[in-house]
Structure formats: C-alpha cells, structure tokens
Design goal:
alpha+beta
C-alpha cells in the first residue's frame, strides 16, 4: 500500500513540476546613464556555456522549459539496479549509435544535480551513481536517441554526489530493438532551464560596457546603467553594481598614470625583485593583447601608492574596507546555497572538479559562480626571484590601497579550493591585479 501511494505521489509531483516549467518569457533591454543606446548584448548561460548575441533593438526570447520536459518519460530502455538505491546504484542503457552521450540527473524541481558526458561505442553503457536521499529524474541523450527515467535514493548517510562510467559493452539484441523505436529530438532554441543563471554583457556607443547577472523567472525589461570607466591609455572597462558600490567588472591593464607617464614594464626576474618604484608586467610576460585585456596586468604595490594615480578618472584603487563591504553584502545576499566567493569568481577559466574540491569552493561546480557579475578571473600573481609566476586557473590576487608597513601593502586573494576571501598584507614587490571602485 505504501509503495502504491509513493508511486502516485511521484507521478503527481512530476506532472506538476513539468507543467510549471512550460512558460515562455521575453527579456527586453534599455540603457541609461552615460548612454541610452545599446549596441549589443552578449548573453551567456553559465550552466551550458552557450552564448548568444542580441543586436540593438532586439529582445531575447526564452522557452522556460526544463530539460526533463523535452521528452516523454520512457524508462523502457533504462535499467537502474537497485531502485531504490541505498549506498550506490548502477544505471545501464543501450547506445544505438557511437558518439557523445550525456547522462544528466535532476531533482524534481528541475535543478541539475550532476552530469557526465562521454564518447561511447554502440553497445550497453553502465554508470555508477551515489545520491543523497530523494527522488530524481534521469535523462540520457546521444546520437539519435534520448531516454528518461526515475530513480529513488534511500541513502541514510550524507554522501557527496558521484557519477562515473563503469562499462561500455556491445549488446546486439537490445540495440536492434531500440533502433526500431522513434525518439524525440530536441529543438535548436537557446537552451534555458528553470534556475539557470544568465550573465549579460551590454555594450553601448563603442566604449561603454556593463555586466549583469540574473536567473530570470518572468518576462521583464533589464535596465543597463552605463558608466564611463576609461584609463589613461584610452582602454574602456566594464562596470558592475553590487549593493551600493560600483566596481570595475574586470582587472586594470593600464600602462600609464593619469599624468601620462608610463609605468615601466619589467620582465627580468631579478630586476623585478629589486624594485622599490612602480613596475608592471603581463602574466609570464605575455604580449598577447587579447589575453592581457581579458585578465589584466600585474603591478607591484608602488604603482598603487604613486600620486600620479593609476586608476581611471573618477575611480580609485579599492581599499580593504571596500572589499569588506563587498564580501559582507554578498555573504548576506548570495543565498545560503552559494558561498560568497563563488558569487565573486567567474564561471570560466577556473580549474573545476567536483571530486577535488568541497561544495562552496570556487572550483566546485563553477557553472554557478559569478552571481554578482564581478568576474574574478584566475590570473595568478608574480612572485620574487626565480619563483616566477603563480599558476593561472587557481588563484587571483588584488592590491588594496592600504599601507601596512614599509615592506607590506594591502592584499585580497581567492584560491580555487578556499571557502573565503583572504585579506592580509603581502610584500609590496609582488605582482598582483588591481580593481577600482567609483569615487
């Protein structure tokens, strides 16, 4: 009797959850501030890494349909053993054509729990899965086939979610049976699921740019406030409003002070280590302009302290107090499921692993990073002597304007495995990034 009631409950919940995702929504865009025109908007779905360019005057139409609603529930060809699972289970299904196959597991409210994509041969695929207690939906999609099924977990211990392929064997009899079946094929619209985070880059007048992040749930008009942020080289920077503060949305890469004087580009390791005057460099002394504009340059602290001022006009190098205001705001407003440093970190370029890092760390499920639009990219930093540069993809570090001692300046850094922003003094001779705040 209890099993029948549970089965009916699952069906009711599935039907209800699928219906509520079938909305359509439209996003319109307007500009204010330094410019009321919009040249284009680049929209990135941080979960799928898909992006789309919306030209001036156009809207973004989204089909708010969860992936689990794209197919009819047909578990005829999916085997789960045991089901319910207690400690772990084996999911097996036929692969009717060789190629890329994705297996995704969703909660009943449509949230993606875990996924695995592999190049598989024709045959039978087997995956090992560990899940917390609950009811889940499974979706399999490959070259010419797509299946869904339901899974119940009765795990009695708190376990980290795990999904890994176990085997891929030929099973001709089952394959021939599946190949006679017609399967649903997905449409080609911009993919958007309930709860997906979209990152917007809006451009105006050829020089203004602003960042914005949201998980849309209804049609609306997004207002992009454009603010001028131009350094002495003439480089234009994106801006992002977080709480009451207006920050640069990218790292500084200026080579000149406001006075027009050039900051020396010091490549030699020994010369860099001996500096007690301003100096800058690119990561590993790169000359790639695209990389430099994306990640910014590295500066010693003497650049920050120089009265000729490295910050764009109307802006200043951030202080420790301003960083604390930022992190306190994000800690209070990012939601209990997102550590504030994940809200700071970009969703791209960080090393990512759900096996290596703990939930809440920057490198754990990077697709949910950057809810603030701050876009902290892991450029690393420059050390002294033959130590060279700290590895990119695992760390970012910014100077603050605080002067701690004759040898130490203020610093904020994030690392891929950490659970907080570290605010502490560092040697003024190191090479770090710079972020500025509006006056």
């Amino acid at each position: 009797m209890k099993k029948n009631i549970l089965a009916i409950l699952i069906v009711v919940v599935l039907a209800t959850s699928i219906d509520c995702f079938s909305n359509k929504l439209v996003l319109n865009f307007v500009g204010t501030g330094a410019s009321n025109t919009i040249d284009s908007v680049i929209v990135l779905n941080t979960r799928t890494s898909e992006q789309i360019k919306i030209d001036s005057g156009n809207s973004l139409s989204l089909n708010l349909i969860n992936d689990i609603n794209d197919v009819k529930v047909s578990d005829h060809f999916v085997s789960i053993c045991p089901n319910p699972i207690v400690s772990f289970g084996i999911i097996s299904f036929p692969v009717i054509n060789s190629g890329s196959v994705s297996l995704k597991i969703f909660s009943l409210d449509g949230k993606l729990i875990t996924e695995s994509t592999n190049e598989l041969n024709i045959g039978e695929a087997k995956y090992r899965v560990v899940l917390p207690k609950g009811v889940f939906l499974i979706q399999v999609q490959g070259n010419g086939f797509k299946y869904t099924s339901k899974l119940i977990s009765q795990s009695i211990i708190e376990s980290k979610v795990q999904l890994s392929i176990e085997d891929n064997q030929v099973f001709d009899k089952l394959i021939s049976k599946v190949q006679d079946t017609t399967f649903y094929r997905t449409n080609s619209n911009f993919k958007f699921n309930k709860g997906d985070q979209l990152f917007f880059k809006a451009y105006s007048s050829g020089k203004y740019c602003t960042y914005y992040t949201e998980c849309p749930s209804e049609s609306k008009t997004i207002n992009f406030n454009f603010v001028d942020c131009t350094d002495a080289d003439g480089n234009h920077y994106a801006t992002v409003k977080i709480g009451t503060q207006l920050w640069m949305g990218e790292n500084l890469y200026a080579t000149k002070f406001r006075s027009g004087d050039t900051v020396p580009n010091v490549k030699d390791a020994t010369a860099w280590s001996n500096l007690t005057t301003p100096g800058l460099c690119a990561y590993k002394n790169s000359i790639n302009k695209d990389s430099i504009s994306k990640f910014g340059r590295l500066y010693n602290w003497y650049v920050v302290d120089d009265k000729r001022d490295i910050a764009p006009k109307g802006w200043h190098v951030s202080t420790q107090s301003e960083w604390l205001t930022l992190t306190d705001y994000l800690a209070e407003n990012s939601g209990i499921s997102i550590n504030y440093i994940k809200a700071l970190a970009a969703s791209t370029d960080w090393y990512s692993s759900t096996d290596t890092y703990s939930p809440g760390a920057i490198g754990y499920n990077t697709s949910i990073n950057n809810s603030s639009g701050f876009c902290a990219l892991p450029i690393g930093s420059r050390l002294l002597g033959n130590a060279g540069f700290r590895v990119m993809n695992k760390l970012c570090s910014w100077w603050t304007a605080d002067d701690y001692s004759i040898n130490s300046g203020g610093n904020v850094f994030l690392n891929v495995s950490g659970l907080k922003a570290y605010i502490e003094p560092q040697s003024k001779q190191l090479g770090n990034s710079i972020r500025c705040v509006k006056d």
